[in-house]
Amino acid sequence: MTTDSVRWGILATGGIAAAFTADLIDLPDAEVVAVASRTEASARAFADRFGISRAYGDWDALAWDEDVDVVYVATPHAAHRAAAGLCLKAGRNVLCEKPFTLNVREAEELVALARDNGRFLMEAMWMSCNPLIRRLKALVDDGAIGEVRTVQADFGLEGPFPPSHRLRDPAQGGGALLDLGVYPVSFAQLLLGEPAGISAQAVISAEGVDLQTVAALSWESGALAALHCSVVGGTGTSASVTGSRGRIDIPSGFFHPDRFVLHRAGRDPEEFAADPADGPRTTFRHEAREVMRAIRAGETESPLVPLDGTLAVMRTLDAIRRRIGVRYPGEAV
Q1: Cα Rg of the chain (Å, integer)
Q2: In this predicted structure, what is the pLDDT of residue 110?
Q3: Active-site annotation, residues
Q4: Contact between 167 and 177 (Cβ < 8 Å)
Q5: Which end of the chain is more exposed for a tag (fewer CB within 10 A), N or C?
Q6: Beta bridge partners of 196
Q7: CB of 164 within 8 A of CB of 171?
Protein backbone atom coordinates (compact mmCIF):
# COMPACT_ATOMS: atom_id res chain seq x y z
CA MET A 1 0.00 0.00 0.00
CA THR A 2 1.25 3.44 -0.94
CA THR A 3 -1.68 5.61 0.13
CA ASP A 4 -3.04 6.67 3.49
CA SER A 5 -6.53 5.48 2.58
CA VAL A 6 -7.34 1.79 2.28
CA ARG A 7 -8.96 1.20 -1.10
CA TRP A 8 -11.86 -1.22 -1.07
CA GLY A 9 -13.56 -3.26 -3.74
CA ILE A 10 -17.04 -4.63 -3.16
CA LEU A 11 -17.90 -8.01 -4.68
CA ALA A 12 -21.71 -8.44 -4.93
CA THR A 13 -24.46 -5.85 -4.71
CA GLY A 14 -27.08 -7.24 -2.32
CA GLY A 15 -28.39 -5.85 0.95
CA ILE A 16 -25.39 -6.73 3.11
CA ALA A 17 -23.02 -5.21 0.54
CA ALA A 18 -25.04 -2.00 0.57
CA ALA A 19 -25.09 -1.80 4.38
CA PHE A 20 -21.34 -2.39 4.63
CA THR A 21 -20.55 0.13 1.88
CA ALA A 22 -22.74 2.77 3.51
CA ASP A 23 -20.63 2.45 6.66
CA LEU A 24 -17.35 2.35 4.73
CA ILE A 25 -17.92 5.63 2.93
CA ASP A 26 -18.37 7.37 6.29
CA LEU A 27 -14.84 6.36 7.36
CA PRO A 28 -12.28 9.05 6.50
CA ASP A 29 -9.47 6.54 5.87
CA ALA A 30 -11.50 4.22 3.62
CA GLU A 31 -12.12 4.65 -0.08
CA VAL A 32 -14.47 2.45 -2.10
CA VAL A 33 -12.97 2.42 -5.58
CA ALA A 34 -14.69 -0.47 -7.37
CA VAL A 35 -17.67 -2.82 -7.30
CA ALA A 36 -18.36 -6.02 -9.20
CA SER A 37 -21.46 -8.07 -9.87
CA ARG A 38 -22.41 -10.83 -12.29
CA THR A 39 -24.03 -8.17 -14.47
CA GLU A 40 -22.71 -4.76 -15.41
CA ALA A 41 -26.15 -3.20 -14.93
CA SER A 42 -26.29 -4.29 -11.29
CA ALA A 43 -22.73 -3.12 -10.66
CA ARG A 44 -23.39 0.23 -12.33
CA ALA A 45 -26.57 0.84 -10.32
CA PHE A 46 -24.67 0.09 -7.09
CA ALA A 47 -21.77 2.31 -8.16
CA ASP A 48 -24.11 5.19 -8.96
CA ARG A 49 -25.85 4.80 -5.61
CA PHE A 50 -22.60 5.10 -3.63
CA GLY A 51 -20.48 7.26 -5.92
CA ILE A 52 -18.05 4.47 -6.85
CA SER A 53 -15.93 5.16 -9.92
CA ARG A 54 -15.56 1.63 -11.36
CA ALA A 55 -18.30 -0.91 -11.99
CA TYR A 56 -17.42 -4.37 -13.29
CA GLY A 57 -19.81 -6.91 -14.76
CA ASP A 58 -17.59 -9.83 -13.78
CA TRP A 59 -15.60 -10.84 -10.71
CA ASP A 60 -12.27 -11.28 -12.50
CA ALA A 61 -11.95 -7.62 -13.37
CA LEU A 62 -12.30 -6.61 -9.73
CA ALA A 63 -9.95 -9.34 -8.52
CA TRP A 64 -7.19 -8.14 -10.87
CA ASP A 65 -7.68 -4.41 -10.23
CA GLU A 66 -4.30 -3.35 -8.83
CA ASP A 67 -5.82 -0.23 -7.28
CA VAL A 68 -7.87 -2.34 -4.86
CA ASP A 69 -6.19 -3.06 -1.52
CA VAL A 70 -8.92 -5.32 -0.10
CA VAL A 71 -12.08 -6.94 -1.43
CA TYR A 72 -15.22 -7.37 0.65
CA VAL A 73 -16.92 -10.58 -0.54
CA ALA A 74 -20.67 -10.26 0.06
CA THR A 75 -22.06 -12.99 -2.18
CA PRO A 76 -24.40 -15.67 -0.83
CA HIS A 77 -22.22 -18.08 1.13
CA ALA A 78 -22.39 -20.88 -1.44
CA ALA A 79 -20.21 -18.63 -3.64
CA HIS A 80 -17.71 -17.57 -0.96
CA ARG A 81 -15.11 -20.19 -1.86
CA ALA A 82 -15.08 -19.23 -5.53
CA ALA A 83 -15.23 -15.46 -5.02
CA ALA A 84 -12.70 -15.18 -2.21
CA GLY A 85 -10.40 -17.72 -3.85
CA LEU A 86 -10.36 -15.75 -7.08
CA CYS A 87 -9.40 -12.57 -5.23
CA LEU A 88 -6.68 -14.24 -3.17
CA LYS A 89 -5.13 -15.82 -6.26
CA ALA A 90 -5.06 -12.38 -7.87
CA GLY A 91 -3.16 -10.95 -4.89
CA ARG A 92 -5.99 -9.12 -3.19
CA ASN A 93 -6.60 -9.06 0.54
CA VAL A 94 -10.07 -10.35 1.45
CA LEU A 95 -12.80 -9.80 4.02
CA CYS A 96 -15.33 -12.61 3.44
CA GLU A 97 -18.86 -12.57 4.81
CA LYS A 98 -20.02 -15.17 7.28
CA PRO A 99 -20.52 -18.07 7.24
CA PHE A 100 -17.00 -18.21 5.84
CA THR A 101 -17.77 -21.09 3.45
CA LEU A 102 -20.19 -24.00 3.11
CA ASN A 103 -17.88 -26.40 4.95
CA VAL A 104 -14.48 -26.72 6.54
CA ARG A 105 -12.87 -28.21 3.43
CA GLU A 106 -13.61 -25.01 1.50
CA ALA A 107 -12.49 -22.92 4.46
CA GLU A 108 -9.18 -24.76 4.66
CA GLU A 109 -8.64 -24.15 0.93
CA LEU A 110 -9.13 -20.38 1.38
CA VAL A 111 -6.84 -20.23 4.40
CA ALA A 112 -4.16 -22.13 2.49
CA LEU A 113 -4.49 -19.75 -0.46
CA ALA A 114 -4.15 -16.71 1.79
CA ARG A 115 -1.13 -18.09 3.59
CA ASP A 116 0.56 -19.28 0.40
CA ASN A 117 0.09 -15.85 -1.19
CA GLY A 118 0.85 -13.82 1.93
CA ARG A 119 -2.53 -12.08 1.76
CA PHE A 120 -4.79 -10.86 4.55
CA LEU A 121 -7.95 -12.92 5.04
CA MET A 122 -10.72 -12.56 7.63
CA GLU A 123 -14.25 -13.81 8.12
CA ALA A 124 -16.64 -10.89 8.46
CA MET A 125 -17.77 -11.93 11.95
CA TRP A 126 -18.63 -8.40 13.04
CA MET A 127 -19.69 -9.67 16.47
CA SER A 128 -16.09 -10.41 17.41
CA CYS A 129 -15.05 -6.83 16.55
CA ASN A 130 -17.88 -5.22 18.53
CA PRO A 131 -16.45 -3.16 21.44
CA LEU A 132 -19.07 -4.40 23.90
CA ILE A 133 -18.49 -8.06 22.99
CA ARG A 134 -14.76 -7.45 23.38
CA ARG A 135 -15.45 -5.99 26.85
CA LEU A 136 -17.57 -9.02 27.76
CA LYS A 137 -14.85 -11.41 26.62
CA ALA A 138 -12.22 -9.51 28.60
CA LEU A 139 -14.36 -9.76 31.75
CA VAL A 140 -14.82 -13.50 31.25
CA ASP A 141 -11.12 -14.02 30.49
CA ASP A 142 -10.19 -12.03 33.62
CA GLY A 143 -12.33 -14.30 35.80
CA ALA A 144 -15.14 -11.86 36.58
CA ILE A 145 -17.65 -14.72 36.74
CA GLY A 146 -15.19 -17.48 37.66
CA GLU A 147 -14.94 -20.64 35.57
CA VAL A 148 -17.45 -20.68 32.70
CA ARG A 149 -20.07 -23.38 33.25
CA THR A 150 -22.74 -22.73 30.63
CA VAL A 151 -23.36 -20.60 27.55
CA GLN A 152 -26.83 -20.09 26.10
CA ALA A 153 -27.62 -18.23 22.87
CA ASP A 154 -30.41 -18.13 20.29
CA PHE A 155 -31.06 -16.52 16.92
CA GLY A 156 -34.34 -17.04 15.10
CA LEU A 157 -36.29 -15.25 12.38
CA GLU A 158 -40.07 -15.36 12.23
CA GLY A 159 -40.46 -15.90 8.50
CA PRO A 160 -42.30 -17.54 6.88
CA PHE A 161 -39.87 -18.01 4.01
CA PRO A 162 -41.22 -19.65 0.85
CA PRO A 163 -39.47 -22.73 -0.58
CA SER A 164 -37.93 -20.54 -3.30
CA HIS A 165 -36.18 -18.29 -0.77
CA ARG A 166 -32.38 -18.64 -0.43
CA LEU A 167 -32.82 -19.66 3.23
CA ARG A 168 -34.61 -22.79 2.03
CA ASP A 169 -32.53 -23.47 -1.08
CA PRO A 170 -29.91 -26.24 -0.67
CA ALA A 171 -28.05 -24.97 -3.73
CA GLN A 172 -27.45 -21.69 -1.88
CA GLY A 173 -26.46 -23.30 1.40
CA GLY A 174 -29.89 -22.67 2.89
CA GLY A 175 -31.11 -23.45 6.38
CA ALA A 176 -31.00 -21.85 9.79
CA LEU A 177 -27.63 -23.22 10.88
CA LEU A 178 -25.22 -21.58 8.43
CA ASP A 179 -27.08 -18.30 8.14
CA LEU A 180 -28.04 -17.77 11.79
CA GLY A 181 -26.57 -20.57 13.89
CA VAL A 182 -23.06 -19.43 13.03
CA TYR A 183 -23.59 -16.60 15.54
CA PRO A 184 -24.43 -18.70 18.63
CA VAL A 185 -21.66 -21.16 17.72
CA SER A 186 -19.13 -18.37 17.22
CA PHE A 187 -20.19 -16.72 20.49
CA ALA A 188 -19.72 -19.93 22.47
CA GLN A 189 -16.36 -20.66 20.87
CA LEU A 190 -15.17 -17.08 21.32
CA LEU A 191 -15.43 -17.71 25.06
CA LEU A 192 -14.56 -21.41 25.31
CA GLY A 193 -12.72 -22.47 22.17
CA GLU A 194 -13.49 -25.55 20.10
CA PRO A 195 -15.79 -28.05 21.85
CA ALA A 196 -14.88 -31.65 22.63
CA GLY A 197 -18.44 -33.00 22.22
CA ILE A 198 -21.32 -32.07 19.92
CA SER A 199 -24.92 -33.27 19.70
CA ALA A 200 -27.83 -31.78 17.74
CA GLN A 201 -31.43 -32.15 16.64
CA ALA A 202 -33.27 -30.35 13.86
CA VAL A 203 -36.50 -29.95 11.94
CA ILE A 204 -35.73 -30.51 8.25
CA SER A 205 -37.68 -28.93 5.40
CA ALA A 206 -38.98 -30.75 2.34
CA GLU A 207 -36.07 -29.22 0.44
CA GLY A 208 -33.57 -30.82 2.82
CA VAL A 209 -32.38 -27.83 4.88
CA ASP A 210 -32.80 -27.21 8.60
CA LEU A 211 -35.73 -25.01 9.59
CA GLN A 212 -34.59 -24.96 13.19
CA THR A 213 -31.72 -26.60 15.01
CA VAL A 214 -30.70 -27.05 18.62
CA ALA A 215 -27.12 -27.98 19.46
CA ALA A 216 -25.45 -28.96 22.72
CA LEU A 217 -21.69 -28.45 22.93
CA SER A 218 -19.41 -29.69 25.68
CA TRP A 219 -15.83 -28.99 26.74
CA GLU A 220 -13.33 -31.02 28.74
CA SER A 221 -13.49 -28.33 31.44
CA GLY A 222 -17.09 -29.37 32.15
CA ALA A 223 -18.59 -26.35 30.41
CA LEU A 224 -21.73 -26.79 28.29
CA ALA A 225 -23.46 -24.65 25.65
CA ALA A 226 -27.13 -24.79 24.61
CA LEU A 227 -27.61 -23.10 21.23
CA HIS A 228 -30.66 -22.59 19.02
CA CYS A 229 -31.35 -21.16 15.57
CA SER A 230 -34.54 -20.96 13.52
CA VAL A 231 -36.10 -19.60 10.35
CA VAL A 232 -39.63 -20.45 11.51
CA GLY A 233 -39.83 -18.44 14.73
CA GLY A 234 -38.49 -15.10 15.87
CA THR A 235 -36.47 -15.45 19.07
CA GLY A 236 -35.21 -12.89 21.54
CA THR A 237 -31.61 -13.23 20.24
CA SER A 238 -30.47 -13.30 23.84
CA ALA A 239 -27.38 -14.87 25.37
CA SER A 240 -26.16 -15.75 28.83
CA VAL A 241 -22.79 -16.85 30.18
CA THR A 242 -22.88 -18.47 33.61
CA GLY A 243 -19.75 -19.02 35.65
CA SER A 244 -18.86 -20.45 39.04
CA ARG A 245 -19.09 -16.99 40.62
CA GLY A 246 -21.53 -15.02 38.50
CA ARG A 247 -23.41 -14.54 35.26
CA ILE A 248 -23.50 -12.18 32.28
CA ASP A 249 -26.79 -11.64 30.45
CA ILE A 250 -27.26 -10.03 27.04
CA PRO A 251 -31.01 -9.40 26.92
CA SER A 252 -31.31 -8.97 23.16
CA GLY A 253 -29.28 -8.76 19.98
CA PHE A 254 -26.35 -10.63 21.51
CA PHE A 255 -24.30 -10.47 18.30
CA HIS A 256 -24.52 -6.65 18.23
CA PRO A 257 -25.54 -5.69 21.78
CA ASP A 258 -26.29 -2.27 23.14
CA ARG A 259 -25.81 -3.48 26.73
CA PHE A 260 -25.14 -6.45 28.97
CA VAL A 261 -25.56 -7.05 32.70
CA LEU A 262 -23.02 -8.62 35.06
CA HIS A 263 -24.49 -10.43 38.07
CA ARG A 264 -22.29 -11.44 41.02
CA ALA A 265 -23.33 -12.73 44.42
CA GLY A 266 -23.42 -10.05 47.10
CA ARG A 267 -23.24 -7.19 44.61
CA ASP A 268 -25.74 -5.08 42.73
CA PRO A 269 -26.07 -5.94 39.03
CA GLU A 270 -23.62 -3.96 36.88
CA GLU A 271 -24.80 -2.77 33.48
CA PHE A 272 -22.30 -2.20 30.69
CA ALA A 273 -23.67 -0.06 27.87
CA ALA A 274 -22.33 0.65 24.41
CA ASP A 275 -20.54 3.97 23.97
CA PRO A 276 -22.75 6.25 21.80
CA ALA A 277 -19.55 7.43 20.10
CA ASP A 278 -19.13 3.91 18.67
CA GLY A 279 -22.17 4.43 16.46
CA PRO A 280 -25.40 2.43 16.12
CA ARG A 281 -25.41 -1.21 17.18
CA THR A 282 -25.83 -2.25 13.53
CA THR A 283 -22.63 -0.57 12.36
CA PHE A 284 -19.97 -2.46 10.41
CA ARG A 285 -17.34 0.20 11.15
CA HIS A 286 -15.57 -1.78 13.89
CA GLU A 287 -15.05 -4.69 11.51
CA ALA A 288 -13.83 -2.42 8.70
CA ARG A 289 -11.47 -0.55 11.01
CA GLU A 290 -9.94 -3.80 12.22
CA VAL A 291 -9.32 -4.94 8.64
CA MET A 292 -7.65 -1.64 7.76
CA ARG A 293 -5.58 -1.64 10.94
CA ALA A 294 -4.29 -5.12 10.20
CA ILE A 295 -3.50 -4.39 6.55
CA ARG A 296 -1.62 -1.20 7.45
CA ALA A 297 0.34 -3.17 10.05
CA GLY A 298 1.29 -5.79 7.48
CA GLU A 299 -0.67 -8.51 9.27
CA THR A 300 -2.21 -11.37 7.29
CA GLU A 301 -4.94 -12.13 9.82
CA SER A 302 -6.71 -10.42 12.68
CA PRO A 303 -6.25 -11.41 16.32
CA LEU A 304 -9.93 -10.59 16.84
CA VAL A 305 -11.11 -13.05 14.17
CA PRO A 306 -8.17 -15.44 13.74
CA LEU A 307 -8.27 -17.92 10.89
CA ASP A 308 -7.76 -20.89 13.19
CA GLY A 309 -10.84 -19.77 15.12
CA THR A 310 -12.86 -19.54 11.91
CA LEU A 311 -11.75 -23.06 10.94
CA ALA A 312 -12.77 -24.33 14.38
CA VAL A 313 -16.25 -22.84 13.97
CA MET A 314 -16.56 -24.43 10.52
CA ARG A 315 -15.61 -27.81 12.00
CA THR A 316 -18.39 -27.44 14.56
CA LEU A 317 -20.94 -26.43 11.92
CA ASP A 318 -19.93 -29.44 9.80
CA ALA A 319 -20.30 -31.74 12.81
CA ILE A 320 -23.77 -30.36 13.59
CA ARG A 321 -24.84 -30.86 9.97
CA ARG A 322 -23.63 -34.46 10.06
CA ARG A 323 -25.75 -35.07 13.12
CA ILE A 324 -28.90 -33.53 11.64
CA GLY A 325 -28.40 -34.99 8.17
CA VAL A 326 -28.06 -31.82 6.06
CA ARG A 327 -25.84 -31.99 2.98
CA TYR A 328 -25.54 -29.52 0.14
CA PRO A 329 -25.31 -30.41 -3.56
CA GLY A 330 -21.89 -31.68 -4.56
CA GLU A 331 -20.44 -32.12 -1.09
CA ALA A 332 -19.77 -35.15 1.07
CA VAL A 333 -19.95 -34.00 4.69
Answers
A1: 20
A2: 98
A3: 98
A4: no
A5: N
A6: none
A7: no
